[in-house]
């Protein structure tokens, strides 16, 4: 059995000593258990042993008519995904594993590319560079396809799950709305998959902070 790699994150008091976005693994980093600990935190929040890890934490705030329901939705989706890490299903199985509402809120899958015509990276890059900043932002903030979102959790050679940049830590609600706290590999980190999870779950006006 192949062991899953563990998450290595900056200790909060060490982060300022390292370059922004650094990923180098050093002796002063602290190890956080992955799947088992994350599932526990999704279901019941952080425990005393989590406090000893002192990871670098980032908080995502959002607004919603019912913030508690947004958090319940997000937990339901992410719990089912993280629980499959040891035996990752094929693409055709996920619609049966995830809540119907999440599947419906994801963008339709793009048709399979014509293999006789290879993807023109240069042409795509020219179109991207020609876009205004507002247009680029609109593209970035659009709905994700299910396959694109799952790609960042897929631990096989076809995905990026072995190089995740955030893990669920804690969540709650307050007078301004709701919040999700995640352990990260530092800032900046790949937050797109987290943002889409919260948006699809019903959150809006997302703001990241400490």
What does this structure look like?
- With 210 residues, the chain is an alpha+beta fold.
- The chain has helices spanning 35-44, 48-51, 67-82, 94-97, 100-105, 121-130, 133-140, 146-151, 192-200, and strands at 7-9, 30-32, 56-63, 166-174, 177-184, 204-209.
- It is 35% helix and 18% strand.
- Strand 4 and strand 5 (177-184) form a beta hairpin.
- The model is unreliable at 1-32 (pLDDT under 50).
Oligomer: single chain
By DSSP (H or I, 4+ residues per run), the number of helices equals 9
Low-confidence stretches: 1-32
The tally of strands reads: 6
Query: Beta-sheet strand percentage?
Result: 15-25%
Order of helices and strands: EEHHEHHHHHHEEHE
Portion of residues within helices: 25-40%
Helix- and strand-based class?
alpha+beta
Q: Can you tell me the overall shape?
A: globular
Q: Order of strands across the biggest sheet? A: 4-5-3-6
How would you concisely characterize the structure shown here?
The protein is of the alpha+beta class and 210 residues long.
Task: Provide tags for this entry.
globular, two-stranded antiparallel ribbon, disordered N terminus, 9 helices, four-stranded antiparallel β-sheet, 210 residues
């Amino acid at each position: 059995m192949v062991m899953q790699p563990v998450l290595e994150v900056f200790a909060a008091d060490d982060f300022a000593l390292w370059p922004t976005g650094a990923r180098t693994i050093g002796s002063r980093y602290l190890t956080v258990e992955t799947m088992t600990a994350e599932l526990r935190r999704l279901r019941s929040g952080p425990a005393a042993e989590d406090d000893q890890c002192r990871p670098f934490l980032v908080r995502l705030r959002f607004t919603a008519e019912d913030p508690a329901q947004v958090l319940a939705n997000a937990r339901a989706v992410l719990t089912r995904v993280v629980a499959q890490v040891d035996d990752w299903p094929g693409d055709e199985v996920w619609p049966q594993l995830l809540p119907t509402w999440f599947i419906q809120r994801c963008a339709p899958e793009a048709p399979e590319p014509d293999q006789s015509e290879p993807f023109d990276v240069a042409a795509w890059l020219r179109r991207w560079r020609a876009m205004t900043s507002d247009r680029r932002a609109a593209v970035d903030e659009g709905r994700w396809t299910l396959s694109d979102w799952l790609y960042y959790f897929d631990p096989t050679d076809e995905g990026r799950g072995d190089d995740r940049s955030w893990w669920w830590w804690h969540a709650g609600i307050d007078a301004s709305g709701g919040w999700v706290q995640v352990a990260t590999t530092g800032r900046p980190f790949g937050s797109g998959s987290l943002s889409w999870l919260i948006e699809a779950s019903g959150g809006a006006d997302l703001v990241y902070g400490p």
